[in-house]
Amino acid sequence: MTTLSPTASDDGTIHLATVKQRHLKVPITLAVVTLLLAALFVFAPRDGESTFRLGDASAAVGLPDVSVPTAFTAWTVLVLIALLAATASWLAWNYRAVPLWLTLVFGILGVFAFLTWAAAGGLVPVTGLLFGAVSLSVPLVFGALGGVIGERVGVVNVAIEGQLLLGAFSAALLSSITGNPFVGLIGAMIGGVLVSFVLAAFAIKYLVEQVIVGVVLNVLVTGLTGFLYGALLVPNESELNRPVRFTRLEIPVLGDIPIIGPVLFNQTIIVYLMFVTVAVVTWALYRTRWGLRLRAVGEHPQAADTVGINVNRTRFWNVSLAGAIAGIGGAYFTLVSVPQFGKEMTAGLGFIALAAVIFGRWDPLRAALAGLLFGFATNLQNLLTVLRTPIPSEFMLMLPYVVTILAVAGFAGQIRGPAAAGKPYIKG
């Protein structure tokens, strides 16, 4: 990256000098991952054959299993990713940006090398792995979309965890009472909006520090749902905590596509709603008047106020919209994943969704892809347990969080968020 820096000559004339900056975080991250894989292959070698199952039993088009020699394939792919890491280092050292395709290819090859090592003498169901990754990423994607809208409009939404949790509780309660999962889904959105109302009121009207309000709301919702669970749901479990869940709906023809068909087109209503929401929010944020106003309020509220935009009102209603979207993610827990509500069942996923917002550069599509990455890491941890790899189970449980740290520290540390995020606006 090159920037222009003013310098003064002896006669007092101001000149612009070119200053080059090296961005080494991505190359360093790639190098660290390469060294970790090399250490794993050296100190815990595995031999035999690794089998990848590409087909699905329910698919119309069957694909054969693919078996590869474990050690040879793992080391060959390791050499390739080492070359990619070296290329990234060379580009960064010469003040050039590391292209996105290089990082993506590195990630795909790195995962393939790791799976080849882990699956020695075992089987990797590729379709099942991807299907589970999409399923586990649904709350993260909805939470990340809520975080993107909130921060783009100038309010840091740390309360994603609370919105997910109250959404899950509301969905379970209303779906159990009415026997209708769609009513539960609407209830989840209302639950997310209620949390957002409190966040917006304190952050926008009373000018309380937004991060503190978000943390307090997470604790409040955790305690409230825990109390209601013990006092209301447990004694009346059959009536109030047996939600009717959504079933899968396969899209004809598309669901028969090998590998990706069952993953993308044999899902529940909430997953399809996730696809639509990501597309609509991405389009609306950059192509509509609503998106222009939202971004203006989050970047330069004084300028937005000058042209007649009511800054605080815009923030309030968009934070509420963000809560409704995050609430849909909470509904996934009780209307799809688990047949009943449980205490603290979101397990901190709201904070990972917040990391996905940062890793995704406050962009809806990138944040959704980041959510998919973290969902894949979670499902990979489950697969590694089944494959009985020599990695201790405690380290496997750490895997999603390690991926989150590497992603945010390695790739997102060189970007900035919306300029007015977290800053209350007081009209002069």
Automatic annotation (TrEMBL):
**Record's keyword annotation contains Transmembrane helix:** yes
Q: Which keywords does this chain's UniProt record carry?
A: Cell membrane, Membrane, Transmembrane, Transmembrane helix
Name the InterPro entries for this protein.
ABC_transp_permease
Stretches that traverse the bilayer: 26-44, 72-93, 100-120, 126-148, 155-177, 183-204, 211-232, 269-286, 316-335, 341-360, 367-389, 395-413
Identify the main location.
membrane
Organism, per UniProt?
A: Microbacterium thalli
Q: Where in the cell is it found?
A: Cell membrane
Superkingdom assignment: Bacteria
Q: How does it sit in the membrane?
A: Multi-pass membrane protein
Lineage of the species this protein comes from:
Bacteria, Bacillati, Actinomycetota, Actinomycetes, Micrococcales
What is the name of this protein?
A: ABC transporter permease
